[in-house]
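ugh finaly. both done.
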Amino acid sequence: MLSKRFGKTAVGTVAAAMLMAVAACGGSGSGGTTASEAPATDAASSAPAEGALKVGLAFDVGGRGDKSFNDAAYAGLEKAKTDLKADIKELSPAADGSNRGELLRQLADAGYNPIIGVGFAYGEDIKKAATEYPDIQFAVVDSASNAPNVTGLLFAEEQGSYLAGVAAALKSKTNHVGYVGGVENDLIKKFEAGFVAGVKATNPKTKIDIKYLTPDGDFSGFKAPEKGKVAAEKMYQDGADIVYHASGDSGLGVFQAAAAAKKMAIGVDSDQRQTVKETDLQAVIMTSMIKRVDVGVFEFIKAFQGGAKGGANTVYDLKVDGVGLSTTGGEIDDIMDKIDAAKQKIVSGEITVPAKP
């Protein structure tokens, strides 16, 4: 869902940037352009009508209903169905993600084109599928590509997380905050790096607790609410009063811990104050670092419909509001001037946000 502050600007600006970027690099083969749980079913049994815009999407672990990353991608797919009259198909992987490649082949064999893989874990599978199906256009979220028929949809997570760090440092009454990452890999470390940089730039005296739920390669950390809860509980017990998570479905546990401790939390990917149904949990979500996967998915589909080809990587950053903070609930309204100032310094280049801890 869109925050009032970032929604319309992000859609309009990113749309234009994406269309120009993708169209300009059709079939280039390499390079990058900076644009500044429904159950799995047999795709072949419901093949779309001939001549229709046929869009297939394969979710990351957790599938639709995670109220975060996957749901953001589905919002873009739904918009394509509504606005572009697309015939859509969604598939979810096994709990361990072992059948990602098979999902892509199911969609391709059923005539879907383009096909989108949600999450960096699809990188190698899409590379193989793109070779096997050279006439189909693919996109992969969070993974760069140089294949001529693959578009990488990338995000400056570190920049949005920097703003989350600014907000946390300004709002913390104990000068103690925390960060919970789902899986300790390079992508999720980008969130940590930006968050820590934002906190330290705002209040160097602030203590930051950091915990990852699973090691690199074990994606169960994105679907382990109990582990998220335990990690956040420890941080709150130790004095933290705000915890930022980048852990997918495990974030629900972080919110539960915040509610029990009467402390605050920061969501991720979607405006989680709107996507989480429990009212007691909504109340503890101070803000969310929005990652506009919905925009990336929709604009890729729209560009494909317009005749664009892949072969490039499009980066959604603060310059095009591809990342940002939600304002639902008004919890950060009183500090938006400072957040906006930090954003402008990043956009202008005065601040360079680290992408690694």
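ok and the 2nd:
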Amino acid sequence: MPQQATPSDRTADRRAITDTLTRLLDAWARHDAGAYGAEFTEDASYITFVGTYYRGRRDIAESHRILFAKFLKGTRLADELVDLRFLGPDTAVVNSRGDTYKGARPKALAKVQTYTLVREADGRWRIAAFHNTKRKPLMEAFSFKMAPGLVPAGDR
């Protein structure tokens, strides 16, 4: 059984979690749906920005096999970590900004993701749940102008 970090020192866990996300990006870059799916738990849930719900590693991998061959052919995945926090010794939530792209990496990333990761029995951190939301910058700007209290505290 792998040694767990103490609550005060989660450096190794943080590194393992960011390594999981790096492997996810690398699998996307290779359009390797099997490797992409391997970063998820067997029963993971996956919600796309259009609202499609996939359940399970096999469903996630198979959907990406088709996406990589059609709609996402030739794309890369950009992802920037916004926040990583632990909910217990074997559970973490990661929020990030991301987007798919071809050619040059976009300066502004149009999507926001939430990953819930768990440490499985083999010691590896895998994604148990993923939710992707497309940002609406114009709607955000309008609502912030009309109701300044809606601006997130970190952006004030």
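summary for the 2nd one i guess: DSSP finds four helices and six strands in the chain.
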